[in-house]
Amino acid sequence: MAYPYQIKSLEDYQQQYQQSVIDPEGFWANVADHFYWRRKWDKVLDWNFKDPDVKWFTGGKLNITENCLDRHLGTLGNTPAIIWEPNDPEERHRVITYRDLYNKVCQFANVLKNNGVKKGDRVCIYMGMIPELAIAVLACARIGAIHSVVFGGFSAQSIADRIQDAQASLVITCDGAFRGNKDIPLKSVIDDALIGCPSVKKVIVCTRTRTPVSMIKGRDLWWEDEIKQVETMGNPPCPAEEMDAEDMLFILYTSGSTGKPKGVVHTVGGYMVYANYTFVNTFQYQPGEVYFCTADVGWITGHSYIIYGPLSAGATTLMFEGVPTYPDAGRLWSIVDKFRVNILYTAPTAIRSLMGYGLGPVNHKDLSSLRKLGSVGEPINEEAWHWFKDHIGKGRCPIVDTWWQTETGGIMITPIAGITKEKPGYATLPLPGIQPILVDETGKEVTGNNVNGNLCIKFPWPGMLRTTYGDHERCRTTYFATYENLYFTGDGCLRDEDGYYRITGRVDDVLNVSGHRIGTAEVENAINMHAGVVESAVVGYPHDIKGQGIYAYVITERQTHDPELTKKDILQTVSRIIGPIAKPDKIQFVSGLPKTRSGKIMRRILRKIAEGELDNLGDISTLLDPVVVEEIKRGRL
Ligand code: WT7
């Protein structure tokens, strides 16, 4: 059997789960035994959640790319590792076998070495969804450089913040990226970002769109020229750097409740074991299956479930450059049809938006290859769940509603495809190794079923974050200080009569817009950069397609003569500072904000108004100026 640790039945799940709680070290050692280690670990786990200090597989030596590539060459050399579908359906797709991928990764790893990149150096990757993005990521891992992938939708300012925080020495980008009918000028955005980034010595630019770019002498290099250099050297092999299990693999920035995104750090050994275990089990991956995750590699879903999970399992992973609605709303179904996709992993926001086009784009597409479906990133409403089940899965494919986070590295609570009895809207049960606990505001455990609480995890798992880059104290206060000895997820959660978990959404000031995580404080900071703005407050509200929309209350310096123009201007400011994904859906100009006597904005009230619950605002008598509430209510959009 390909994966001896693959769960086979509900009884097997229960048994593995019990085992993982009684003897976590033995449980994970058994899984880890099926990977290639240069040297086995001395100790499986050392931990405390106080500092926090968590170490898995201490003393173990390995390289994740030897597990994703080298070890498959004998058996899967000619098997597709990556199938790539371009944005334009008229352009030819690419199939990259494990042998090809190995060669390309070694080649580009040598390019990085030729440009002075060493183990431990940080490399920022800002590219579109082309195979070279996966190659760049794996090439970093091969030589022990720490990659920091930044999603192609972030602005120059956001990139600069991330590069400065990580002190990256090299950037890998493209001339541009195709997404739907857009052509995003990645290199020119990088040029703007690098004005304030003296740590960056080299920029490698991969050709994709042939958009004209300006190259800076001594700094900017073409990917293709650098590859030629390595070819001239006779394509030498690139031995994998020997890494400690706890060496950093990557940094991925994510939003929190403060204004500044934090660099979540994952390490080599534990992350590899966890990404693989959760991939193989959640999707019940069988050798030969074609697996398609529609996420972008710029998010954790892409890291764990386009690249590391599937490749470490020797799977065939489909990478799609474009968007679900281009050239029409049947694109995902055409791709399923074209490549006989067996497993489709996507986001509720995509499902909801495609539902809006009716069944026209679905009809006449052959979806009979599909066996398993997955959802990720935000709560899936029942309507979307049923549409996915009935019209895409034709009633015969299980759906796995996977709950997890950038910080968890991999899937935590989810049905196991075809094994766990599913319930729409529920992430159902924890995977083996995961010990969820619900607590009330005071940190007291909420026991029994049919209860609500804040979702925490009480025992470490191999894929968990180790720190936030350059600021361990921030990691402690954000995740481990709210409740003693627990990892706090930031999510509210319900445990129903069957002991099933349903995630109810964030309980902090973090929004989930189309599955993208955005901090309200970040958006406020961006709005406040606008010269005419005095103060702003941002909250989320239910949005039919995006899940949550962004509602901004803004105080301007003086009455604006042309409110529409000012709105447009504010949107542009937010786009420039964060990126288009953070643009408010609604901007309401107000003359004041509801504040307590100590000056704190009462977000609860603003949230209620944005949601349209005008009669249910609760106690407003403690407000400094209760009158503003009336004005805000009247002006509600
Ligand atoms: C937040 C994490 C997990 C990778 C993509 C997002 C929300 C995620 C679900 C789900 C309900 C979900 C949570 C979580 N979330 N999956 N299946 N049901 N909510 O990763 O950007 O780190 O965001 O997304 O609120 O905390 P992320």
UniProtKB/TrEMBL annotation:
Gene Ontology BP annotations: acetyl-CoA biosynthetic process from acetate
GO molecular function list: acetate-CoA ligase activity; AMP binding; ATP binding
Source organism superkingdom: Bacteria
Domain AMP-dependent synthetase/ligase: 75-460
Regions annotated as coiled coil: none
Annotated AMP-binding enzyme C-terminal domain residues: 522-600
Key words of the record: Acetylation, ATP-binding, Ligase, Nucleotide-binding
Gene3D superfamilies linked: 3.30.300.30, N-terminal domain of ligase-like
Domain Acetyl-coenzyme A synthetase N-terminal: start-end pairs: 13-68
Matching Pfam families: ACAS_N, AMP-binding, AMP-binding_C
Annotated EC: 6.2.1.1
GO cellular component: cytosol
Family statement drawn from the similarity comment of this UniProt entry: Belongs to the ATP-dependent AMP-binding enzyme family.
Stored NCBIfam families: Ac_CoA_lig_AcsA, PRK00174.1
Protein name: Acetate--CoA ligase
